[in-house]
Amino acid sequence: MITGPTFEEMLHPQTMDPAIRAQADAARVAAPLDPINLFNITWREIDNSVAHVVLPHELTGIDAEVVVLTGKVFPSGSHKVGAAYSVLLEKVLFGEVDPAKHTLVWPSTGNYGIGGAWVGGRMGCKSIVVLPEGMSRERFERIESYGASVIKTYGSESNVKEIYDKTHELKQNPDIRILNQFEVMGNYRFHYHVTGNTIVELLAELQGKGIGNGKAAAFVWAMGSGGTNAAADRLKQVYPDCKHVSLEPIQCPTLFNNGYGSHEIQGIGDKHVTWIHNVWNVDALMCIDDMSCVRGLQLLAEPVGRETLVKRYGVDAALVERLGECFGISGVCHILGAIKTAKYYGFGKGDVIVTAATDGFDRYPSEMDKLRAHEGALDEAAAVGRLEGIFHAQKTDWVQDGNRHNQERWHNLKYYTWVEQQGKTVHELDAQRDPAWWIAHQEHVAEIDARLRAVRGSGGA
């Protein structure tokens, strides 16, 4: 049995065996496919600093601080690898997956599938990633480079039902195990315990540097699997006034008004409410325009855009260079959502809005090629238009309060996917109304860590 870190070691990698951590750090670049890299699944760098950026006010146009955790630091280049590892680890520890026998299926629209391909291979499993055919070319290349196979389904980001249909077909094979990120609570637990508590510790560290007031005014996240939204459940326990703001595309406003459609924000908005999304803790729902995110990424990623930020707006050149590397399309969506959140709630100097960049720019060059082919090359005038017409011009439209009526409606929408299509019972759905249901899943972290330590003690890992 090949395993990696406990939840506590992912949160606090300094508690690992120093020799293992040193080996993992050495392999990060020298041998990225070595299983020792499982111990690099953490938001913290080798010096124990949290991988993050504090966005310049010249970019956001607001007085509140926007703090962004950067997922590019994780193995495979996305924080989704943490969810994939946690899901598979739990299945192995509880005997639901036998790496010597079972083939894993990872339903995904991108980063979870990439993470699953990487994790599965490192833990000795065969993997199949089911992915819509319209996703970026770089996603498919990355999955195959990790030794997994790909099944392409119809459509793009918003065609999750087609993914489910294919997994139902594959599930007929008794040696197949479906690791559904939209359903399995290992995804939720990773972000509740690791991402949520990492943010708590980061905010205290930043306050010590004179950045922010040591509290989260809001956590902003666009639903994909709904896993990362679990960080808000932890933050609201620590900071009762923290707002949990969920985002989705204007072009596919499922929670906003039962809408549907396709969009260009790869990784979010899948025409259903995920099982692991605690909608009872959502304070507001906001919709973001998809092409604003694509064009906003062009500003950060292309040389003309970066030069404009430095020379015309006075942003530090080294910071601009870093921004160009650590954001993808959904990351820009999160920035725009954070700006909208600040304006909607009136957050200002000293307030901190927290979000994350799921992946980096390395997955989107082909998307920028498409944009240039359609709209032409970026010049300085267009770069100014991107900054002032997209980032600075965010409004408070497309906002829906998370009142009890809307929370009830969002919860009820789960019925159509999970009870009618995916085999859940009404009793299971109704159980999610009780906060104790979510707390029980949060507390399960300790049992899983104890099981993994027991396996290590017996020489099984």
How does this model look, in words?
By secondary structure, the protein is an alpha/beta fold. It has a domain at 52-76 and 187-401: Rossmann fold (3-Layer(aba) Sandwich). The chain is 48% helix and 12% strand. It has 19 helices and 11 strands. It has helices spanning 7-11, 18-30, 57-60, 80-93, 111-122, 137-145, 160-170, 185-208, 230-238, 254-257, 290-301, 303-311, 317-326, 329-345, 365-375, 380-391, 404-419, 426-431, 435-457; strands at residues 52-54, 65-70, 103-107, 126-132, 149-153, 176-178, 218-222, 243-249, 284-288, 352-357, 399-401. A 7-stranded mixed beta sheet has the order 1-2-10-7-8-9-11. The protein has a 4-stranded parallel beta sheet with strand order 5-4-3-6, sandwiched between helices. Helix 6 links the parallel strand 4 and strand 5. Helix 4 crosses helix 5 (111-122), helix 11 crosses helix 12 (303-311) and helix 11 (290-301) packs across helix 14 (329-345). The longest helix has 24 residues, at 185-208. It is globular, with a radius of gyration of 21 Å. It starts with 6 loop residues before the first helix and ends with a helix. The mean pLDDT is 95.
CATH overall fold name of the domain at 52-76 and 187-401: Rossmann fold
Question: Major β-sheet, in short?
Answer: 7 strands, mixed
The strand order across the widest sheet is 1-2-10-7-8-9-11
Residue-averaged pLDDT: 95
Low-confidence stretches: none
Number of helices: 19
CATH class call of the domain at 52-76 and 187-401 = Alpha Beta
Q: What is the correct CATH architecture of the domain at 52-76 and 187-401?
A: 3-Layer(aba) Sandwich
N-to-C span: 5 Å
Helix-strand sequence = HHEHEHEHEHEHEHEHEHEHHHHEHHEHHH
Helix content class: 40-55%
Shape: globular
Structural class: alpha/beta
Strand content: 5-15%
Radius of gyration, Cα only, in angstroms?
21 Å
